[in-house]
# Entry
Amino acid sequence: MTKYEYMQLAIELARKGMGRTAPNPMVGCVIVRDGKIMTDGFHEQYGGYHAERNALLRCEEDLTGADLYVTLEPCCHQGQTPPCTDIILERGIGRVYIGAMDPNPKVAGKGAQILREHGVEVETGILEKECLELNEVFMQYIATGIPYVAMKYAMTMDGKIATYTGDSKWVTGEVARRHVHELRKRYSAIMVGIGTVLVDDPMLNCRIEEGVDPVRIICDSRLRIPLESQIVQTAKGIPTIVAYASGDPKKEEDLRKAGVELIQINEHGRVDFAKLLAELGQRKIDSVLIEGGGTFHGTVLKSGMVNRIFCYIAPKLIGGKEARSPVEGDGFSYMREALEMTDSEIIKLGGDICITGCVRKEEASCLPES
Ligand code: AOF
Ligand code: ZN
# Structure
């Protein structure tokens, strides 16, 4: 096997930690000697041992001179667990292949440097693009403290998210809907505008085996969320935040009693999305999946803080000029102003497809006021 194939295995292992490591990274590690995989490991949960330590502790055999493949630069700091560089050196590993460097200021090149200083051969940048993408959330959050934001919507071939009567169950088929639940597992929080709660009364949980429910966040400037909505009714079991600008004190108290956490941000009577994101970042929320309606998406895109879009398309047509579309507001005047994606890819999901891509940063400035 080549070094790229071993790193690919390490990436697949890392993914097993999805939904359980935030706000820390997903990391995988494979250790090879004389062409044989001796051991492997991954970061299983937040606060637990790192991938390298898990792999090394599982193997009692002599690993002197072995090759270690790891998706993220080994750490060299004492955090919740001891430095991985220590155990790598103790076990006499000969060569370390690194996928992506760690932007955490406590590591940032020092991990690789310490290994080299102790005579370990270090090669960096193996499947770097894939390893960076694996941890796109961590890379942004550790550097800025601002959560990574993805937006998701499902539409028909004629660009509608519901019929003119508001019916939207279901636009896409089962395979695509399962994919959405995988996203809900991957992202730490899910966010919608109050409109979605009033129309759909959703649960916004993660309904797959071994799923992890994201924190639910409702943007609700005037605190209109009904106490009898499914979200409020289940707030004691699933962490739920309502972000609002102003509201009746009695309603505030009732919501708190129901288990809802309230965040008040009043910017001229509205919740400012950028300020809300900063607040969520302080609460260790590293990523947010937006699953709102067209109005909410329009507002959020205007902030310029959306990193990625997941657009599901079902091969159906429903027509109707009153039928809602995924991004509303006033929109741009000219094609040349369009927000463009980089690194876009198409995923086939049964009869549906998903187009995903990163919003080109310099263009993510703003949509016109609606
Ligand atoms: C992980 N898992 O497999 C690797 C990490 O919170 P701590 O003390 O466990 O330290 C977290 C930091 O360690 C994290 O920000 C990253 O820089 C580094 N590497 N973290 O949780 C791992 N390899
Ligand atoms: Zn470590």
